[in-house]
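[recover] target loaded
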């Protein structure tokens, strides 16, 4: 007869069953994770901290064009990006939209206003944006002012007058240079600026260079910032050349005195005795040796093409009034602007003072079909174009020793 085996059933409480299952399953979950982290080199499950970028160093602002400033700096991270701020006064800088997220260590700031000083700072960018802690020190540079235009030189005998237009809204001072001289010129109330160079010699050619300037800075060094390129002009001062007597002719000697108080003399010089033309005229006259001469008026003009030989083609140009000529002494009158044309007969007219004792004139005989003196007593007509019709001719030259033109 077979023997019956008995089975004993053990009763486990519900709470104890949960802990039993955890104990059986834990090795199955933990072991793969440990193995995976070991092979993958995992350390901590927390993200590593991001290191803050260092500030850029050695920032330099360099004017590399009239309206361009190039910024250069150094930084240890070749992959870093940078934001640039700019302003027209130190400490008041704002970000430049076109210069944000810049890579590398150099950038050009272009199309800037003329003649203006700009201040810059640059900041490295981290993952959270730009921080003041990563910002460089400031650097500054000044753009060139606009160059002046329209430089014109007008020569005179011993001076040259220059004028130009200021095109800059920043510069109000200018440097004007020529070989041997340099001038600093300040602008007045007009955009047209003028300067007269009075330290010149007659008959010399001068080249002038003009530029505007502002006081500025470049690469951290204060300097005078000038416009570019220089504006140039060349001009020659006037020099006198002989008109009468011509260089190839023989002067008429004034050898005879005459008392002629109140007379009007009109000396007509023919084209055969005129050597040069010019725009500036200088006259040398001589009175008598017996006493002084006072001339109420002295004029110069060209003769009418048709009409009385002593009449002027236009209102005469005044050379002087109430001119006193000492006895036996030549007198050189101040130069006067007059368009002398050697192809047209020339008239020089004199009104002699009517005061007795002040009419001591001097003359020299001349036989010439084109050159004569016309005179009339008790007449003061030197400043008239159309004179009286009864002037008398004389084959002599009165009072004129030399005429020059420049």
């Amino acid at each position: 007869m077979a023997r019956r085996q008995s089975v004993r059933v053990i009763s486990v409480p519900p709470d104890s069953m949960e802990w039993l299952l955890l104990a059986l399953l834990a090795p199955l979950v933990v072991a793969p994770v440990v193995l995976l982290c070991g092979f993958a080199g995992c350390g901590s499950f927390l993200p590593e901290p991001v290191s803050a970028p260092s500030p850029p160093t050695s920032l330099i602002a360099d004017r590399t064009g009239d309206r361009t400033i190039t910024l250069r700096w150094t930084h240890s991270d070749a992959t870093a990006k940078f934001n640039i701020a700019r302003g027209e006064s130190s400490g008041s800088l704002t970000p430049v939209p076109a210069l944000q997220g810049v890579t590398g260590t150099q950038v050009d700031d272009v199309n800037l206003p003329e003649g203006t000083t700009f201040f810059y700072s640059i900041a490295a960018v981290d993952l959270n944006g730009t921080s003041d802690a990563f910002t460089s020190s400031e650097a500054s540079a000044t753009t060139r002012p606009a160059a002046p235009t329209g430089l014109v030189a007008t020569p005179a005998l011993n001076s040259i007058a220059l004028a130009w237009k200021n095109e800059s809204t920043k510069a109000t001072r200018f440097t004007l240079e020529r070989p041997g001289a340099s001038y600093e010129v300040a602008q007045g109330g007009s955009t047209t600026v003028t300067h007269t160079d009075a330290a010149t010699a007659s008959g010399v050619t001068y080249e002038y260079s003009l530029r505007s300037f502002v006081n500025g800075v470049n690469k951290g060094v204060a300097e005078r910032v000038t416009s570019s390129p220089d504006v140039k002009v060349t001009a020659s001062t006037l020099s006198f050349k002989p008109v009468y007597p011509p260089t190839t002719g023989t002067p008429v000697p004034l050898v005879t005195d005459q008392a002629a108080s109140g007379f009007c003399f009109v000396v007509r010089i023919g084209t055969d005795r005129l050597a040069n033309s010019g725009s500036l005229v200088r006259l040398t006259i001589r009175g008598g040796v017996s006493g002084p001469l006072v001339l109420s008026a002295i004029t110069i003009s060209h003769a009418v093409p048709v009409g009385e030989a002593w009449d002027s083609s236009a209102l005469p140009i005044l050379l002087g009034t109430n001119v006193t000529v000492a006895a036996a002494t030549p007198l050189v009158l101040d130069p006067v602007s007059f368009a002398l044309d050697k192809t047209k007969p020339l008239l020089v007219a004199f009104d002699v003072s009517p005061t007795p004792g002040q009419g001591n004139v001097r003359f020299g005989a001349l036989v010439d079909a084109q050159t004569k003196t016309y005179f009339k007593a008790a007449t003061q007509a030197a400043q008239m174009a159309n004179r009286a019709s009864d002037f008398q001719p004389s084959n002599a030259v009165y009072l004129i020793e030399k005429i020059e033109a420049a």
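[recover] notes: Residues 1-10, 33-46 have pLDDT under 50 and may be disordered.
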